[in-house]
Design goal:
The chain is mainly alpha-helical. It has helices spanning 2-36, 43-70, 86-90, 105-112, 115-125, 132-154, 159-162, 171-189, 210-227, 242-268, 274-291, 297-320, 329-347, 350-356, 363-366, 370-400, 407-412, 414-419.
Length: 465
């Protein structure tokens, strides 16, 4: 019997570590997606920050965040497990992380550090105009905010967990929270120079590399098979091999989101916009994150189709009310996160809710609004806490030191201004063998310094009022 238990621990640990690596690979997806959907002059800065924030989050989450989220404690925060060392991280099913019953604490930490995914969402809405130091300070601050909500919903001591809130892998914990902080940042920063005209109408600022954005989306789709199935945290949670079912619902939703995204864009925008198709995929993945362990295949498809609609119309709505969100974080992660959380309360299958011992079946199966009400309570509570905390933190930083770069820095681009080199140096400065040299004379290109840089006159805007 003991040997079977040890084998289960070994298998579960392998599973969780492998899925944790898949989740870490999602940082590459965010790097390609966000760099592709923004301008060339900021590409290196935007891609590189995904490495920076994952590093910051990993350190802070080990020191404090993991204890706040999963350490034994009260209903609001974990009170133990800070700065864990050898004993705590090699133990299985023991304090201070006794909730991890089939994997050692170290494997639990490695997987749960996908807190970095939530942080990556924040910077998408703040792209192309936030100061680099803000990544460091707010990265630390938001990791702590995120960890508190994680405790509410995922720790057995958490007050929302005890009420039966269903959020299998984090539509609320990861995506909704990231979008709330992203919205706070976008509001406090204000729009990019030139985004809105004097009449208030939005000017398009297209991303510089759509294939990058496509590749980033595919990587994220791939990584989501770690994100959702890995959230079983063992090979037998919900039944042996149950994580395969979670992978299936995840894929069905994403596929439906892709079709709906491009279809809705074709109708609304009169063109099958590729970026909207990508947003549809991501919105569907966000929505199914809460529901993937609880719903039937048909419901996963419905969730994906609605998410595609939300992605397209949400991006348009956010822009129309004057918010500049370069990668659509507010709609794709926020609105779709809300939809996915509520959809779980609609479509949760009785047998799956029972197997997971979390919450009650959904409205469609029972006619009861109970689970839907619990889901709504979670959204309202997390929305109030995370948005207020994020807005307050960024507001203080703005008032004390300023969080937006100067107009001339924004116009020149953050690559050269913040880091001393462009992501595409050949387009901006003479490079031996680069564009405009004899090696490329057949292209008929002349190469002067900044010859490809956009000629934009800086506006007298430093901080949004």
């Amino acid at each position: 019997m003991a040997s079977n238990h040890n084998l289960l621990i070994a298998a579960s640990t392998i599973w969780v570590v492998v899925t944790a690596v898949l989740v870490m690979f999602m940082q590459a997806g965010f790097a390609f997606l966000e760099a592709g959907l923004t301008r060339m002059k900021n590409a290196a800065h935007i891609a590189g920050k995904n490495v920076l924030i994952f590093g910051i989050c990993s350190l802070v989450y080990w020191a404090v965040g993991f204890g706040l989220a999963f350490g034994d404690g009260g209903s609001l925060i974990g009170l133990h497990g800070f700065f864990p060392s050898v004993t705590e991280l090699t133990a299985v099913g023991q304090k201070p992380f006794d909730w991890f019953a089939e994997i050692p604490g170290a494997a639990g930490y490695l997987f749960e550090v996908f807190a970095g995914v939530s942080l990556a969402i924040v910077w998408g809405a703040m792209a192309e105009r936030a100061k680099l130091w803000v990544y460091f300070v707010f990265g630390v601050y938001f990791t702590l905010v995120y960890s508190v909500v994680s405790h509410w919903i995922w720790s057995p001591d958490g007050w929302l967990f005890q009420r039966g809130m269903q959020d299998f892998a984090g539509s609320t914990v990861v995506h909704y929270q990231g979008a709330l902080a992203a919205l706070a940042g976008a509001l406090l920063l204000g729009p990019r120079i030139g985004k809105f005209g004097t009449d208030g109408r939005a000017n398009p600022i297209p991303g510089h590399n759509v294939p990058y954005a496509v590749l980033g989306t595919i990587i994220l789709w791939f990584g989501w098979f770690g994100f959702n199935p890995g959230s079983t945290l063992s090979v037998d949670f919900g039944g042996f091999g149950y994580f395969g079912y979670v992978a299936l619902t995840t894929n069905l939703a994403a596929a439906a989101g892709a079709v709906a995204g491009i279809g809705v864009a074709w109708v609304v925008l009169k063109k099958p916009d590729i970026s909207m198709m990508l947003n549809g995929v991501l919105a569907a993945l966000v929505a199914i994150t809460a529901a993937s362990g609880f719903v039937a295949p048909w419901a996963a498809i419905v969730i994906g189709l609605v998410s595609g609609f939300i992605a397209v119309t949400g991006v348009i709505l956010v822009e129309r009310i004057g918010i500049d969100d370069p990668i659509g974080a507010v709609s794709v992660h926020g609105m779709a996160g809300v939809w996915g959380t509520l959809a779980t309360g609609l479509f949760a299958v009785p047998i799956l809710s029972k197997n997971l011992a979390t919450g009650t079946p959904g409205l469609v199966y029972t006619g009861s609004f109970h689970q839907l009400g619990v889901q709504a309570l979670g959204l309202v509570s997390v929305g109030a806490f995370t948005f207020t905390a994020s807005f307050a933190g960024l507001w203080v930083m703005k008032k004390l030191w300023g969080i937006r770069v100067e107009p001339e820095v924004e116009t020149a681009g953050l690559d050269v201004s913040e880091h001393g080199m462009w992501g595409y140096p050949e387009f901006y400065i003479p490079v031996p063998g680069g564009y405009g040299t004899e090696a490329h004379s057949h292209l008929g290109l002349s190469h002067g310094r900044h010859s490809h840089a956009p000629a934009i006159r800086p506006e007298a805007v430093t901080e949004a009022s």
